């Protein structure tokens, strides 16, 4: 690899810096580290959100160093053949396999030319394609069948880039790949540097417009209802659109008057609303958030600087009228490092099962709800004694106060959901119980968003007859098929296509006594999220406590509303026999003939009845765990279950985390 360098490495860096200064603003530290890694002969992984100049840096370094630069767009359709290369089918049919007829792919070409191979969206590349990089990264060579050994020329480097915050259509990069790469995290630049970037990319000299565009764009990254805000590209587009829109409307942008600011709002809606990824807790569309931020940046902050009256709020974002803003919170479920194992004698021993547990089948669920109805009727005073918070939503006549509950829900969502989960199974009045049950059902169905994991790229490459989906020709099999056929048909050709095997999931929900209140509603939401996030697969749902109940068999059809209603109808009860729940789940999986069978258990990790569940967890082909408690002993118990089941372990703190936790398990 030819680089502008002398014997002193610092001089080489200065030469590169001078050559890339026209393209890159700032980034001195990142530039130094990239050049150092490349000069050391290392391969590199750049991690950061979109719009943080990863591609710009590498293109500039490649031009400055004089090295060839080959770029690959990572996606689910990138197969090993497309990365490595292929034999020319026409030449093979004419005279068989010859090395001269091999068409190099980007990886082979980069190695032969000593080029920089840049793979964008690295975590969107399927695992079998990434595995082809193992030998080139470690040995700087690999073997192509019927072509021979490919050795990397001096100067070959692989640089990958990915956005670790995106979970739509992305895959987990294996540790074996990480172990072969140096990693550099690249974050957003300072506000001053982002202003310089906007000036460079737009050629604008309008300072107030550039300053406002950058401030507005940066504000999207800290808004409590936005999971991921816009990159500096949003500010660039805002300025460009505003300056093209101004002459169409006859607005003078050289003056920051109301007409110019109103025009900026329209430009901001175009440039920013599609670049914001909203949090699961967001209750407004992105346009409303952009408008709120625009008011703050262009009106309230300037007024405060001039000493004019401004709203006195803690958050610099203007609070909308009519409701209280919830405090900012961490978004999404939690993945924790493995906790150390406790002392053997420090944990309580699980009790022995004295009587054989009962396992209810789907047609016996009515027996569970009948048990609740057989108890003595409870008065309002009884309910208030056990649930003091119910005083906020139960009127003196015992009726449910919708307005009071709505206000409580806005102020403290967790307390409202916990109260609702405890209240409706306990109420003696049938009409009140039906009202609160329907309210709980409505909340659960609303929160269980449809966010299916992407099927593309996650199946295995299998030879199939050509059906106009894939152009990755399986040359060997095709030659065998068309041999002796003077006029081959379309279905005589074989291609490699990603075929995803049908799966069966079993969701195991802990409904023991420790899962009362909002935890029971969380379990219902987990079932609803699973049902909404799988399309072509089967799933079963089972409950467990001291006994167990199968609410839905894997091949059984059951409406989602009815399934959630049945979960909410089963009052949290008794001790926890985790092993029994795992046994029931395995039986349901064994009833199906699908190739892939996966268990997901939703529990707080408490096990106080029955034998050790860990040996049974190891019998699952794959077992994921969604934990509901962050106590050390419970976290460790959940992690051990997932480790034995070769699955993922994730923890939730709030109800809104559950759909993302379910998607995280499904994407494994």
Q: Low-confidence segments, ≥5 residues, pLDDT <50? A: 1-11, 303-330, 450-457
Q: How far from one another are the termini?
A: 39 Å
For the largest beta sheet, what order do the strands appear in spatially? 12-17-16-15-18-19-20
Shape: globular
**Record field, number of beta strands:** 20
What structural category characterises the helix and strand content?
alpha/beta
Q: How many DSSP helices?
A: 26
Can you give the helix content as a percent range? Answer: 40-55%
Strand content: 5-15%
Q: Let me know the average pLDDT.
A: 77
**Rg calc:** 30 Å
Largest sheet: 7 strands, mixed
In brief:
Helix content is 41%, strand content 14%.
Describe what this molecule looks like in 3D.
- By secondary structure, this protein is α/β, with parallel strands linked by helices.
- Helices cover 41% and strands 14% of the residues.
- Strands 12-17-16-15-18-19-20 form a 7-stranded mixed beta sheet, with helices on both faces. Strands 2-5-8-1-9 form a 5-stranded parallel beta sheet, with helices on both faces. Strands 3-4 form a two-stranded antiparallel sheet.
- The two termini are 39 Å apart.
- The relative contact order is 0.08.
Could you name the key traits of this structure?
single chain, 668 residues, alpha/beta, 7-stranded mixed sheet, 5-stranded parallel sheet, 20 strands, 41% helix, globular, disordered N terminus
């Amino acid at each position: 690899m030819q680089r502008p360098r002398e014997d002193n490495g610092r001089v080489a860096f200065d030469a590169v810096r001078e050559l890339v200064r026209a393209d890159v603003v700032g980034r001195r530290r990142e530039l130094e580290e990239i050049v150092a890694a490349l000069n050391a002969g290392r391969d590199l992984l750049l991690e950061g959100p979109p719009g943080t100049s990863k591609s710009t840096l590498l293109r500039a370094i490649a031009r400055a160093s004089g090295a060839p630069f080959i770029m690959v767009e990572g996606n689910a359709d990138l197969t090993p053949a497309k990365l490595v290369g292929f034999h020319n089918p026409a030449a093979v049919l004419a005279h068989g396999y010859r090395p001269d007829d091999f068409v190099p792919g980007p990886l082979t070409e980069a190695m032969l030319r000593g080029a920089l191979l840049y793979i964008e969206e690295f975590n969107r590349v399927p695992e079998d394609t990434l595995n082809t990089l193992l030998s080139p990264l470690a040995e700087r060579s690999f073997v192509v069948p019927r072509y021979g050994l490919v050795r990397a020329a001096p100067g070959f480097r692989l640089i990958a880039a990915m956005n670790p915050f995106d979970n739509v259509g992305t895959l987990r990069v294996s540790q074996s790949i990480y172990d072969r790469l140096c990693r550099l995290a690249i974050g957003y630049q300072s506000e001053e540097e982002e202003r310089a970037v906007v000036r460079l990319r737009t050629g604008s000299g309008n300072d107030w417009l550039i300053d406002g565009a950058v401030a507005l764009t940066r504000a999207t990254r800290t808004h409590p209802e936005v999971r991921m805000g816009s990159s500096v590209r949003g500010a660039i587009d805002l300025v460009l659109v505003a300056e093209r829109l101004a002459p169409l409307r006859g607005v003078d942008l050289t003056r920051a008057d109301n007409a110019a600011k109103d025009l900026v709002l329209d430009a901001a809606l175009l440039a920013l609303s599609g670049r914001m990824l909203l949090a699961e807790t967001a209750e407004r569309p992105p346009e409303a958030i952009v408008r709120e931020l625009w008011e703050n940046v262009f009106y309230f902050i300037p007024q405060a600087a001039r000493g004019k009256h401004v709203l006195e709020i803690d958050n610099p974002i203007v609070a909308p009228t009519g409701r209280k803003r919830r405090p900012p919170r961490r978004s999404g479920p939690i993945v924790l490092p493995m906790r150390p194992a406790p002392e053997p004698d420090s944990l309580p021993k699980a009790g022995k099962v004295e009587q054989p547990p009962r396992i209810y089948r789907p047609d016996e669920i009515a027996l569970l709800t009948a048990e609740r109805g057989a108890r003595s009727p409870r008065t309002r005073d009884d309910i208030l004694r056990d649930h003091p918070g119910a005083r906020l939503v139960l009127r003196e006549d015992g009726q449910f106060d919708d307005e009071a509950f709505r206000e409580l829900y806005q102020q403290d969502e967790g307390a409202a959901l916990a109260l609702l989960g405890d209240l409706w199974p306990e109420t003696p009045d049938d009409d009140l119980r039906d009202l609160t049950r329907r309210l709980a059902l409505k909340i659960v169905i609303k929160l269980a968003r449809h966010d299916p994991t992407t099927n593309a790229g996650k199946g295995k490459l299998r030879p199939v007859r050509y059906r106009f989906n894939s152009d990755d020709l399986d040359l060997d099999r095709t030659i065998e098929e068309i041999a002796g056929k003077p006029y081959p048909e379309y279905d005589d050709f074989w291609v490699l296509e990603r075929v995803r095997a049908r799966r069966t999931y079993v969701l195991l929900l802990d409904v023991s006594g420790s899962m009362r209140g909002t935890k029971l509603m969380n379990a219902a939401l987990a079932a609803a999220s699973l049902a909404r996030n799988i399309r072509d697969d089967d799933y079963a749902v089972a409950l467990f406590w001291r006994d167990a109940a199968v609410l839905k068999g894997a091949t059984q059809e059951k409406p989602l509303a009815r399934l959630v209603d049945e979960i909410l109808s089963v009052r949290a009860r008794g001790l926890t026999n985790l092993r029994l729940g795992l046994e029931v789940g395995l039986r349901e999986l064994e009833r199906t003939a699908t190739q892939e069978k996966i268990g997901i258990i939703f529990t707080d990790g408490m096990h106080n009845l029955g034998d050790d569940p860990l040996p049974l967890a190891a019998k699952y082909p794959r077992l994921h765990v969604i934990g509901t408690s962050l106590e050390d002993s419970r976290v460790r118990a959940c992690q051990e279950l997932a480790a034995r089941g070769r699955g993922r372990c994730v923890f939730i703190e709030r109800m809104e985390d559950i759909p993302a936790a379910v998607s995280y398990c499904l994407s494994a």
